[in-house]
Specification:
- This protein is an alpha/beta fold and 285 residues long.
- It is built from 9 helices and 8 strands.
- Strand 3, helix 6 and strand 4 form a beta-alpha-beta unit.
- Helix 4 crosses helix 5.
- It is globular, with a radius of gyration of 27 Å.
- The relative contact order is 0.14.
């Protein structure tokens, strides 16, 4: 609070004092016998305060609006993912143990379908894997947030997708438990996740609480600000409400968002590529 006060100019402070004193004078109309000069003086002071503020401070009284700046997503050590419902493997393609090869084959399959006029096959975890691959080289930890319908798939996602690819073996994977309000570390022999409670993806408060609890647990060995600089929230999966919450929490923190495009960068190219965008919130001048 003191830091914010120091940033105010004397003209701004003076304008505020004039308006406050003027308002006090005007308010006496309702609780003391009428003294003609007081309300008149109050009106003069309020108007004077506004004029001083606008004259000396061009931004005095303006409302600041937020906007989003889109760039290529940064790489961060911690990636938070909202888990979408999906089978552990696509029904239209057999996966290998090579992440780059599989993502290339999935893109090629959709390109061929598009060229022949067929409806494109869709595997929800494809774009999730693209978001993970984007952070490789820096990524050390993945945190899964599941809904009541998808939290039971977290073990499948870890054991049958993450563990399929050797390039992902060194990444720690946790799932957030909604009822216990804590993280569960997933390992190859983890117990089944049946009966665990996820987070209601349509409940704004629950989503905010989940992210706050995750950050609190992640910051046990470091400061909250330091952890925020290392965290990226992927808003590709889940519902639109997930994106709204992720956007809200990043307005006042150092965390960032990433989104994996669902349409190719160039649909006429011989090889389809998908961009990974980062969204940075900023205040307009």
């Amino acid at each position: 609070m003191l830091r914010r006060l120091k940033q105010l100019s004397l003209s701004t402070i003076g304008a505020a004092i004039l308006m406050a004193f003027g308002g006090a004078c005007i308010s006496t109309i309702t609780n003391v016998p009428l003294v003609p000069w007081k309300p008149l003086l109050g009106i003069v002071l309020v108007v004077s305060g506004l004029l001083v503020g606008v004259w000396k401070e061009p931004r005095f009284g303006e409302f600041k609006t937020w906007s989003l700046r889109k760039n290529e997503a940064q790489q961060r050590p911690v990636l938070i993912l909202f888990l979408s419902p999906a089978p552990s493997e696509p029904k239209f393609l057999e996966l290998s143990n090579d992440l780059d090869e599989d993502l290339g084959r999935l893109a090629q399959h959709k390109r061929e379908e598009s060229m022949t006029g067929h409806k494109q096959s869709f595997w929800p975890w494809e774009q999730t894997l693209r978001g993970i691959r984007h952070n490789l080289g820096v990524l050390k930890r993945i945190v899964l947030i599941g809904s009541p319908q998808t939290i039971t798939l977290s073990q499948d996602f870890y054991a049958k997708v993450i563990q399929r690819y050797p390039v992902l073996h060194q990444i720690r994977v946790d799932v957030y438990l909604g009822k216990e309000k804590k993280l569960k570390h997933l390992v190859p022999d983890s117990v089944a996740t049946a009966g665990l409670q996820g987070v209601d993806f349509e409940n704004f408060d629950e989503l905010i609480e989940a992210l706050q609890q995750i950050l609190t647990e992640l910051s046990e060995s470091s400061s909250l600000e330091a952890i925020q600089e290392n965290v990226q929230i992927d808003i590709t999966g889940g519902l639109k409400s997930n994106s709204a919450v992720a956007g809200a929490v990043t307005l006042t923190s150092r965390m960032s968002n990433q989104y994996v495009a669902t349409n190719p960068k160039d649909s006429t190219a011989p090889v389809w590529e998908y961009e990974v965008w980062g969204y940075d919130a900023f205040q307009r001048d």
